[in-house]
Amino acid sequence: MNIDVPDIVVRRLPIYLRVLRRLQAEGVEETPSHMLAKTLGISAARIRKDFSHFGEFGQQGRGYQVKKLTVELQRILHVDNIWPLVIVGVGQLGHALAMYDGFQENGFRIVALFDNDPAKVGMTVNNVPIQHIDYLEGEIRRHQLQIAVLAVPASQAEAIADRLVAAGIKGILNYANITLRPRPGVIIQQIDPTIILQHMTYYLEQPRN
Amino acid sequence: MNIDVPDIVVRRLPIYLRVLRRLQAEGVEETPSHMLAKTLGISAARIRKDFSHFGEFGQQGRGYQVKKLTVELQRILHVDNIWPLVIVGVGQLGHALAMYDGFQENGFRIVALFDNDPAKVGMTVNNVPIQHIDYLEGEIRRHQLQIAVLAVPASQAEAIADRLVAAGIKGILNYANITLRPRPGVIIQQIDPTIILQHMTYYLEQPRN
DNA sequence: GCCTGTGAAAGGATTCACAGCG
DNA sequence: CGCTGTGAATCCTTTCACAGGC
């Protein structure tokens, strides 16, 4: 049990949580670390060490109670309540994200959508109305939103990120294919499939050509 | 210069490449490591050390030539030719991915789309026809495809992954919110926004509630 | 002077291996 | 006996700091 937990450990917690929820859905009530380890392709020691940063959740000789561990992880990750989200940019991608059920299922609720295209304003996606981006700051402040999903073109991403941060956003999930400049006090994470694919191709051999 | 390069270094190369392409688009011809470092929010030493695994690409007193370094990184990452891709699952997300320009722009071309819904078969997205999933293995073998993007429901992901691997796929980019069982000789990477958001919330405080 | 490339040092993360408990 | 939790050992990554070159 340790006060300051390495970020690399925190990153793995949501992955553990996802497996545990799946086990729970399958009716599994307890599981030892080496079963989780096998499912995830990592070592059992790492799993036990990771949990040990937060307390003692297991039972010798038996393993972990799935239900109990799930609850603990949700508490640790602050996902024991619903987090409201805003999505900025309702193009193809933003639209698909707004329709995506996974957010709801994992404790996030999309409460606002913004776009700069007047033609889209007033339309609703998944029962959430699209508002003009002029109202971005007002809505963030009104709902005290902390998390934004950024799905605008790369050329606009930095400028929108500045506006989000100025309005009080503390976490940005960026889908634009640009590395956003770091901002103090703000957690910025990136999703870019081409970055991941280029990492893969390092290990692959181009066929003919 | 080293034979075996740590994976963590390889993971950063696509990020460097993206910044360099951006600099090139802006007309910047050379840049020192500390400028790249500042843009990315990491240390200059790390950048120089990363490059040093592959050779000596810089000039003392001047930095790196953007054009030259770009070419070197593309070669190292095996993205100096076009990689063909297949997308499996053409729901909201698969559709958005099929429309996404970023793949083309970064050296990937979508050559086939598959879905199990007969109503979708025959429709085209971005000029690529949707085929029934029965033809999956045949097309993968015919085009000798190595990379697949998986955008099917979580419940089907493991089964489809098995089929992909049996047909010769070596890299899977998985969008389903399940951790796929590891398969020997296959690189599996995951994109799951809720995992990233749950990592963020660890560092945020839930407001009232 | 500015900047790279790199050994050496420092700092982290993972695995080992086992005491201790149910 | 099976499994957790954990110090110790190992392994890996980053930073430091500077020689050497433009």
Q: Could you describe the 3D structure shown?
A:
In chain A, strands 6-7-5-4-8-9-10 form a 7-stranded mixed β-sheet. In chain A, 36% of the residues are buried. Chain A is 44% helix and 19% strand. The longest helix of chain A is centred in the N-terminal third of the chain and has 19 residues, at 7-25. The model of chain A has no long low-confidence stretch (mean pLDDT 96). Chain A has 2 domains: 7-75, Arc Repressor Mutant, subunit A, CATH 1.10.10.10; 83-195, NAD(P)-binding Rossmann-like Domain (Rossmann fold, 3-Layer(aba) Sandwich), CATH 3.40.50.720. Chain A has 209 residues and is an alpha/beta fold. The termini of chain A are far apart. In chain A, strand 6 (124-125) and strand 7 (128-132) form a beta hairpin. Chains A and B meet through helix 1, helix 5, helix 6 and helix 9 of A and helix 1, helix 5, helix 6 and helix 9 of B. Chain A binds a DNA duplex (22 and 22 nucleotides) through helix 3 and strand 2.
